[in-house]
Each structure stands twice: as C-alpha cells, then as structure tokens.
Amino acid sequence: MKGNYTNKNIQYWQEAAILLGLSEKMKNQEDKKIKKEILRFLARKFDNTGNWINKPEHIDVAILAYSVMKLSFIDVERYRLAFDYTWKLIKDHIGEDGTVGYRKSMMNYRYVDTIGFICPFLIAYGVRYKQEECINLALKQLDNYKNNGFLNNVSIPYHAYTIKKNVPQGLCGWGRGMGWYAIGLMDSWNELSEASLYKPVLEKNIIEFSKMIIKYQNENGSWNWTVTRKECRPDSSTTASLTWFLMNAEQIEAISSECKESSNNGIKYLIGVTRKNGEVDFSQGDTKDIGVYSTQFNILPFTQGFCLRVINLKNKKELYKGEIKRNIS
C-alpha cells in the first residue's frame, strides 16, 4: 500500500489482497482509521467519474477491481466506469481458444495466475450487471485450465500451458500458483447464487482440490513453495491462500471436518511466523518467468492480506456460533 514495488502490475495483486483483507475486517467491526485509509487509497486510483486515473494495460488489475467491489461501506456503483473498463480490457485479451491470455505478447500461454486475477471479478461483474457472457468466460477459463493445465488424474496445476498443443509448462505444484487457482475457484463459487446451475460443478472441483492440498500439507501446518516436494522450504503466501481456501470449503458438508482441521493447522503455522510487529514472514518473492522462481522469502503484502482474510473469516464464524448459542439459550 506504501508503493514499495516499482512495477505497477505487481502492485495490483498486492494492493488487492490487502484491500480484500481489510474489507473482511470492516464487515466484522468498523474501524474509522482503516476506512479513512481505504478512501484515501481509492482517491489515488480513481477520478471523479469513477474511472481509473491511470488506465491499466494488463488483466492483473481485475483482482483489484474485484476487491473494490467487495467493500461494503462504499457506493460501489460510483466505480462502474472502472469496472466496465476492466471488463473491456479482459475481452481484449481473449485469444483464439476463447480464453484470456496473461499478456498480449504471450497469447500462446495460459497462466494459473490468471485464474485468480480475473475469474472472481468476471463472476461478480456478471452477476451484478446481468452479463452472462462474463460468467461464461470465467467458467470456461476455469474449465479449460482444469482440462489442460493439470497433472493427469491428479488435481495439481502446472504454472501454465500452451494452447497450441495443450502442453503443460513450468512446475507442477508451484505453491503460489496453487494459491491463485484456489482463490479463483473459491471466490467464483462464493459469488454464484445458490440457484446457479454452475454452483455444483465448481463445488465438485473444490472437493477434489481440497482433498489434494490437505494431502500435501506439512505436519507443522504449512505448505512448501513447491507443494509436492518435502525438501523445499515452507512458503507463507501459499499457506495463507490455501488456509483461506479450506476455511471456505468447510461449508461443504462432505469435507467439512477435514478442511477445518487442516485450516486450523495452517493458522497455527502462520501465527508462528508472524513477527511481533504483526508482519507475516517467509513468503516467496515475485516470480520472474515460467520456471524462474524467487529464492527470497520475506514480507509480502499479498500474504498479509490473505492472513487478514483468514483471521476475519474465523472471527466471523466465532461470532456466528456465539449468536446461535445466545438464540438457543
């Protein structure tokens, strides 16, 4: 949020994660200081018409647009022009296979990052403004990745795949890539109404993915930066996003108990790597390219944001339980 990253495209998903976490905090308990800072942030991003001050060129910005849509204390309609612009930007990146490319210069590739960047926004935008085309595009992006970017018969995504020959690229089981898939899948599922015909399809994928990631969780509650390799070091960004995913998956009765146990263990790990000043340590740095992964493990705003989503979702559940007990008594 302080602008420490020089690449504005990297900044989008860092900012979005922080905003999503603070949004969850504000749902549980309003904080005037947080509200003030969020409004200042929005004033730096949007003009008086509600459009982007600096027009984004890459689809990474969709997750930031989505995080703005999740703010409960603002008039979301004020930013309609920015949302419309984001939808147009995504459409401009649709390739010959009918799915969205990560960059105009790399349209032969489909990245797992893109699932998390665009799918929640597309579902939320499509539902809010009755744009079935948006919803269908998000579902196609998810479905095509499931069919072409996963290890055969195993619910583990690769970093990317090529659309020409559907050849997987990069690591199978890159931790934060699994986090991006988890975010795209879960937030999309949450945005769909219970009456949606697509809801059961995504729920089936959530059940499969949950069982797989629980299988690869370490005894200390973490997941490694390459999830399938015990020799790799734990990654807090992976752990935070997968813990959040499993906390949401608890609402599915078929996997509720195992997801709850796993997410609680994830929280214990994250508490253990949180510094006294509140910063969560040991997150893998930014990825440079397919197969070129950072060896730095430090503070990352993305992790901080998802830890906020985790702890505030847990607090919300505890408040709900307390309300039920009071009503019963």
Strand and helix order: HHHHEHHEEHHHHEEH
CATH class: Mainly Alpha
Number of strands: 5
Per DSSP, the total helix count is 11
Apparent shape: globular
User: Structural class, judged by helices and strands?
Assistant: mainly alpha
* Largest pleated sheet: 3 strands, antiparallel
From the alpha-carbon coordinates, what is the Rg to the nearest angstrom? 19 Å
* Relative helix content: 55-70%
Q: Can you tell me the number of structural domains?
A: 1
Per the CATH scheme, the topology name is: Glycosyltransferase
Average predicted confidence as pLDDT: 94
Strand order of the largest sheet: 1-2-3
Task: Fill in the keyword field for this structure.
two-stranded antiparallel sheet, 5% strand, globular, three-stranded antiparallel β-sheet, 5 strands, 11 helices, 329 residues, mainly alpha, Glycosyltransferase
Textual characterization of the structure:
- This protein is mainly alpha-helical and 329 residues long.
- The protein is built from 11 helices and 5 strands; from the N terminus they run ααααβααββααααββα.
- It has helices at 8-28, 32-45, 62-69, 80-91, 112-128, 132-148, 175-191, 199-215, 236-249, 256-272, 301-328, and strands spanning 109-111, 158-162, 168-172, 283-284, 297-298.
- The strands form 2 sheets. The chain has a 3-stranded antiparallel beta sheet. A two-stranded antiparallel ribbon has the order 4-5.
- Helix 7 (175-191) runs antiparallel to helix 8 (199-215).
- The model has no long low-confidence stretch (mean pLDDT 94).
